[in-house]
Specification:
6 helices; 120 residues; mainly alpha
């Protein structure tokens, strides 16, 4: 709801809103990391490809949602955005064989029920 308010009422461009949020997150997360920079460096070197892909695709997906909010009612955009939560959870449980598959699928069903209630 806050995102929709910012891009609609204040007419903040989706990319500018995303960049502003990201700068704030970088500051907060950097403080939270404390003295663990060596560990972060090791993870970065080991998984740089995944980190780069996530670093591009995740903000892009969020910017697309913000752009959609400027064109369509939030009541239509929000449920579609939440479907990704369900799909990722089911993918993790069934394809990646992550633990607690039953709990993940049950939680996905709850999210799906919420989506259906929002669209009703």
């Amino acid at each position: 709801m806050w995102d929709a308010h910012a891009v609609r009422e204040w007419e903040v461009a989706p990319v500018a809103f995303m960049v502003g949020c990201t700068v704030g997150e970088i500051v907060l997360f950097s403080i939270g990391l404390g003295g663990r920079w060596r560990e972060i460096g090791a993870v970065g070197r080991a998984h740089w490809g995944r980190i780069a892909a996530f670093g591009v695709l995740s903000p892009l997906a969020y910017i697309l949602v913000l752009a959609a909010i400027t064109m369509a009612p939030v009541a239509l955009v929000a449920p579609l955005r939440e479907i990704s939560v369900v799909l990722v959870s089911v993918f993790g449980a069934l394809v990646l064989r992550e633990g607690r598959a039953g709990a993940r699928i049950a939680a996905s069903a709850v999210v799906l029920a919420g989506i259906l209630l929002m669209t009703a």
